[in-house]
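User: Show me an example of a complex going from sequences to structure tokens.

Assistant: Sure. Here are the input components:
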Amino acid sequence: QVQLQESGPGLVKPSETLSLTCTVSGYSISSAYYWGWIRQPPGKGLEWIGSVYHTGTTDYNPSLRIRLSMSLDTSKNQFSLKLTSVTATDSAVYFCARVLATVRAFDIWGQGTMVTVSS
Amino acid sequence: SYVLTQPPSVSVAPGKTARISCGGNDIESKSVHWYQQKPGQAPVLVIYYDRDRPSGIPARISGSNSGNTATLTVSRVEAGDEADYYCQVWDSTSDHMVFGGGTKLTVL
């Protein structure tokens, strides 16, 4: 079955760049679907970060757009997230997920990875 | 940007019916999706496209969407239904996805 797994540093210093990778197994990310990132600060709700289509087209949350980039690495069956100039407010559990293209629902999620921004 | 409004909490006795609302301007024109999240776990899609259930989701969980309110209904509530529930839509005019603030369902 399709599985997603996030990976990356658990601690990032303020003003630096947060980089995460989502490895997909059981499905080729170049075949179809959108692939997305969602985050959840401790004790708070879900926030959509952005999505990347299997063709490489991206959609970003406007509140993060200026600091955000997402990409696909089809050779490794991975997609990635880079968020620049982080602050403590970027501390959160970051989830990657598969997105149903026609209705934009997140149907399969990774387990999530906690990222703390602190010096 | 499009805003979704959920009540912070809903409480229900076991065996009763819980209804969780998700309000948004003309939400009936959008496809609404619902997620269940238990503590320390990733969210799980329980309803998509207003009322469709993914494989493995019990028929006790249903959805509806009309006017400015979408509703998630959990019938014959069990202790295992206690969780946070989030609604989500895709705002096609801006091509952005939006989550509601979440509702904590407590089983009394």
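The lines above are the inputs; the final block is the predicted structure for all two components together. Chain A has a mean pLDDT of 95.
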